[in-house]
Every structure is written in C-alpha cells, then in structure tokens.
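Handoff note, outgoing to incoming analyst
You'll be picking up this chain. Sequence as last confirmed:
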Amino acid sequence: MSGRQIDRRVLADVVLAAVVGALGMGVAAFDDGTDALDLTLIALASAPLALHRAAPRAVLAAATLLGTAYVVHAHPGPLSALPVLGAVHTAARVGHRGLAGAASTVFLAGYVATGPGAQEVAERAGLLAGWFLCAVVTGLADRNWQAYLRQTEQRAQEAERTREEAALRRAGEERLRIARELHDSLTHSISIVKLQAGVAVHLARKRGEEVPPALLAIQEASGEAMRELRSALQVLRADEPSGTPALLVERARAAGLAVDLTVTGDERPLPPAVDRAAYRIVQEALTNAARHAGPAKITVRIDYGGDGDGELTIDVDDDGAADPARQPVPGTGLTGMRERVTALGGTLRAAPRAEGGFAVHARLPMGETV
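Most recent structure output, in case you need it:
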C-alpha cells in the first residue's frame, strides 16, 4: 500500500472521529443539563475512533466505557450511542463478534438502568438495540465482502500466473520444434554442401590442379554456416544463462572494460525466471556499454533486499558519452530486457543520466526463493 493511500485513510479516520464527536456535542448542546463533564466524555468517547483500524478492540473498550459513563451521568437521547456504534461496527468488521455483542450489552444496560420513565426508556432501548444489531451485521457483511474480494483477486492472480506458465511452456515447445526442423533440414543440406566442396577441393589438389576460388569460398562459407547454425540451435534449445553476473563482470574486465561490481542484501538463490532475467539484463547492459560508452567506467550494483519475499534491484551505470538530451532508440537488446522484466511483473528504466552516461535500473519481484 502506498504512503498516499495510508495518509488518506488516516485523514478519513480522523474526520470520522471529529464528525461523530461534533454530532454528539451538537445534540448535547440543546440539553439544558449538559455540563463540561458531559462534553468531555463525548469528546473522549469519539476520539478513539480515529484509531479503529490499528486497535479495534482497544477503541471498542474505550468508546464503550466512556459512552456508558456519559449516559449514566447525563441521561441523553439515542444519538449518544454514535461513538459506541462506530466502535461496534469496526470490531465486528475485523471478526470480534463476541466483543461487539458484549460492548452493545454493556452500553444498553447502562442506558436502561439510568433512564427516567420506563416506557420511554424501553422504546429508546429497543431502538438502540436495533442500531447495534445493524452495526454488528453490517460489520460482518463488510468483512465477508472484503474476504470475497481478496479471494477473487487471488484467483485472478493464480489464473494470470497459470496463463504465463502455459505461454512460457508453449514458447519453449515451439523453440524446440524450430530447433528440430532446422537441425533436420538445414544442418543436413549444409553438411552435404560442405562435404562435397571439401571432396572437390581435395581431388583438385590431388591432381595438381588449381582450386577454383569459388569452390574455396563455398567450402569456407558452408563451414561458417554450420558454426552459426549450431550456435542458433543452442540458443533455441536452452534459455539458461551460462554463468552469473559476477562472471559477466570478470569477462568484461578481461576484455578491457573498467567495471566495478557491488552486491548488497541477503544474497541467496533466486527463482529460475528471475535468475535468467538478471543475468540477461547485466549481460545486455555491459554489451551496450562496451559498444556505445567508449572508455567509460561502469558500475554494476545488485541488491537482494532483506529476508523472504522482496525485490531484486539491478543498476548498471556508466559515465560514457551518452547525451541526456537525446533519448535512446530502443533496439533489440533494450526491447528484450523490457519484455523480460515486464513478464515478471517488474519495472525497467534505461535512459541517459543527467550527469552524462547511461543508466539501466531494473526491479524484479523475487517471490518465494528456492
């Protein structure tokens, strides 16, 4: 929940307590027998309603005791029950049905015991009993409705997760099918071309003839095509990273890049999808820095957060030649990074820094660690 939502709830609770207190004092002001103690009891009974979300039982106890003290002292009308009604509704809403019923009984007993005139007191007590019953029932109904909404949201999230898993599985099956097709068709054809070109070159040299340049070009091109095809098949058959971000940093240093790696938080094994995404993000960010940043210093920061669920934060910054006034044109690499992060429900920002250079900032929800 965001800070703005929390602030709005706190403000709404304070306004609720103020309105209930103002109503009680306004009604009491028309009674000639109202004194300072009565107004103080009304204010003290209403004020705890501002904390009804944080401590519903304590609010119920305070409102009931102070509200009962007020009716015992002042013998007011039915509207004096407003603070207790609000506390009873809140307690029932969070599941404290027994406490809500007990508080209603205590207040009604105090109201009946001190009221003048049996007929009038009985009528008012019956009215208040109906109000308290409605407060308990509406509190329980609201609790059941909130539980239903949570269950609906959980089912929607589960359905979304299942769809994503099914999509990933279908994508993997499609990659394997394409790999098989490429292997069965292109690999065989290219192998035949390479073999025949090699035989022709061998026979020409054996006979002492000059090997045609076109034949040598065919032999070399077919060999290169075989190597490229094998690489493509490896990518299609496995989407697993071939190392760790630390290994990527070591490789970048060996290639001449100035790279610093900082790891913070509780480092631990990640879910496979998050682990793959983190590896590819660091890999692509280092590749882009090597291509476009020039002789720059690169900083890689990986934050695992605290224990349990949380977010994995990845920052790759360089102080290269990127211009803050020019936004990058998303290429295949940046698009791939964004798709990976979005598929996991995370966020990605890749843009030039205000002080120069380029920054990649990714946040990946880790869920349950493995």
